[in-house]
Design a protein that fits this description.
The structure holds two protein chains of two kinds. Chain A is an all-alpha fold. Helices cover 74% and strands 0% of the residues of chain A. Chain A has helices spanning 18-26, 30-52, 55-71, 83-117, 122-128, 132-142, 146-158, 162-169, 173-191. By secondary structure, chain B is mainly α. The chains are: A mainly alpha, B mainly alpha.
Chain lengths: 192, 216
């Protein structure tokens, strides 16, 4: 009596690699796109939430990031370090940077106003939730300069390697490591 | 990545890569050897590990205590709605075949042609502007004193010859329609019409024009 192995099941779309899904999306398979979105939406939203410090902006940036992915599918290089995930977080980071650059000019002018309106904004009320300790932690992270925060958040939310983070941010590896080092030292000081 | 250790600028970078477990086996073994003999490096590593753990703990705690901006399902649905709309819009657009690199008209050539056209237009405009028909006698057409002393151009000489020929052809005839049988330019037709209209404000000038003049 010979044992028969069960017939091989065709792989479900959920089990496909990012690169295969990107290929399908490029061919117009929107379902493949949905698998990708579902795969990364959680981490990406949280990453953008930390960078933008605003729920509303994080959601908008999240949508813009995916639309940009669709727009630039032809430019995705499967062989690049970090694969699709690094590319996706790079686009998201660029979107966040673009936003802050465009708002940079307004920021100074509106700084005074924001200090007042923040008290009544949903984000402000949201920030008031939680314990003193949680608020202290949030503030500590918010006090980090953006480049340092980006490296720290990329490491936490994307799980990318430092070499991939450097590529994602378009900076040398030593720069990315320097930023991470400063970030963790500063957080430690702030928490002490 | 071979020789990664050599690329790292300082001990902090090396130790971070060590902590993150991103060094190759050979590089890691080399760092282990250094740590075994260097007490201060071991202290640095311990300090960095404590800061690393504390930082990630802070981020983790903030992450856990902060609800996401929107539920994942809602975020996915919103993105997919916009993505589908985008795909539909892209499909409804006319298909344009991208040009193969090198086969299209080079941009520099377009620029050169545009510059050439501009130059030709300017020369043509300049030629018309220096048209003897709009010479000093016309009054009000003189742009500057240079027009008064301008040397006769080939164009002005040609027009003078044409005007002389017309004068000879039309001598003794008031029928200006005769000239339409000739292969004349619009300017010449206009000149002929105006020259036969004595009440035209430029009639004197045009009459003078038909006479030999030294001004050109």
């Amino acid at each position: 009596m010979t044992l028969r192995s069960a017939p091989a099941q065709p792989p479900t779309i959920d089990s496909l690699s990012d690169e295969l899904l990107v290929g399908r999306l490029r061919d117009g398979d929107v379902e493949a796109g949905e698998v990708l979105v579902r795969r990364y939406a959680g981490a990406l939203l949280r990453y953008l939430q930390r960078l933008s410090r605003s729920d509303h902006l994080a959601e908008e940036l999240h949508q813009q990031t995916w639309l940009s992915v669709v727009d630039h599918l032809g430019r995705f290089d499967e062989k690049a370090a970090g694969g699709f995930k690094a590319w996706l977080f790079r686009i998201a980071t660029n979107k966040a940077n673009d936003l802050w650059r465009s708002r940079g000019r307004e920021r100074n002018a509106k700084q005074g106003l924001r200090l007042i309106t923040d008290e009544a904004s949903p984000e402000a009320s949201f920030r008031l939730e939680g314990t003193e300790q949680e608020m202290k932690l949030k503030r500590a992270i918010e006090q980090l300069p953006d480049p340092q925060k980006q490296v720290l958040m990329l490491r936490y939310y994307s799980g990318l390697k430092f070499t991939e983070i450097a590529q994602t941010l378009g900076c040398p590896l030593n720069t990315a490591l320097g930023r991470m080092h400063k970030a963790i030292q500063k957080l430690r000081q702030l928490m002490d | 990545m071979p020789n990664l250790l050599q690329q790292l600028e300082n001990n902090e970078a090396v130790l971070l890569m060590y902590l993150a477990d991103e060094l190759h086996a050979e590089d890691r073994a080399e760092v282990d050897q250094l740590l075994a003999v260097d007490a201060s490096l071991r202290e640095d590593l311990q300090s960095l590990r404590a800061a690393w753990d504390a930082s990630l703990a802070v981020v983790d705690q903030v992450h856990r205590s902060t609800p996401p901006p929107v539920s994942e399902d809602v975020a996915v649905r919103t993105v997919m709605r916009r993505m589908r709309k985008k795909f539909l819009e892209d499909q409804s657009r006319p298909i344009t075949t991208p040009e193969a690199p090198g086969k299209g008209v080079p941009r520099w050539l377009i620029g050169a042609v545009a510059a050439g056209l501009l130059l030709v237009s300017y020369v043509a405009w300049w030629g018309l502007r220096s048209d003897p028909l709009q010479g000093p006698e016309a009054g009000g057409f003189v742009q500057n004193e240079e027009d008064l002393i301008a040397e006769p151009t080939l164009e002005s000489l040609a027009i003078e010859q044409t005007a002389s020929a017309l004068r000879e052809d039309w001598a003794g005839s008031d029928d200006t329609l005769n000239m339409l049988a000739q292969p004349l330019s619009e300017a010449e037709v206009l000149l002929a019409l105006l020259s036969n209209s004595s009440d035209h404000p430029n009639a004197d000038f045009l009459n003078d024009l038909l006479e030999p003049s030294d001004n050109w």
